[in-house]
């Protein structure tokens, strides 16, 4: 079974003279055990695509199936549950809650999803890999951009999702950290059999990728 099957997706924002056709008949598949990159210039539709496959936006037309289930055939409540159970998001704005310490960001996940999260030991491994163990008592505004980005990655991985969707997960990281994050994403795909989809401008991630797609003016093409 494919984690994702996207068929003939179109997205149009606005109406009349303000109408913008952002995605054109997009088709895409992603299987468990693979890391796919979506590359392309700013404004080409990459984030819109990620938002649609993550079930956060219903496309103007077309179908998105996640683990064989069509979003369109589910109620909003069921879609929310599917997202909670299956998808880990790493978004451009890190969405860390300003009034919670790093440790409490993870505890909040436990409240929303009490079961099926990483064991304390597995979480410890992730924190160690991302070199953020010493930051647990800090608040987001005490962290650098790169530290916040790594905390956001760890938090997305904590619920142990089968699918990981990441929007520019390395934008705030230096080269050494990019290598660490690229290896982590690759290991999640290969060793943990997850489907990892990354929107990025970062050509340093290409070596880790199984498939590379290019988004140009809303048209998605497979490069490798
Ligand atoms: N809610 C919206 N309403 C109207 N237009 C939008 C909306 N969201 C995005 N757009 C437009 O759709 C186009 C694609 O935007 P999108 O953010 O998907 O591109 P992107 O490739 O992710 O860009 P970037 O790399 O800069 O994040 C842009 O022209 C943008 O202005």
From TrEMBL:
GO terms for molecular function: ATP binding; ATP hydrolysis activity. Gene3D superfamilies: P-loop containing nucleotide triphosphate hydrolases. Its EC number is 3.6.3.-. InterPro entries: AAA+_ATPase, ABC_transporter-like_ATP-bd, ABC_transporter-like_CS, MacB-like_ATP-bd, P-loop_NTPase. Keywords: ATP-binding, Hydrolase, Nucleotide-binding, Transport. It comes from the Bacteria. The keyword Transport applies. It is an enzyme of class 3 (hydrolase). It comes from Weissella paramesenteroides ATCC 33313. Belongs to the ABC transporter superfamily. It holds the Pfam family ABC_tran. This is ABC transporter, ATP-binding protein. The keyword Glycosyltransferase does not apply. Residues 6-224 form the ABC transporter domain.
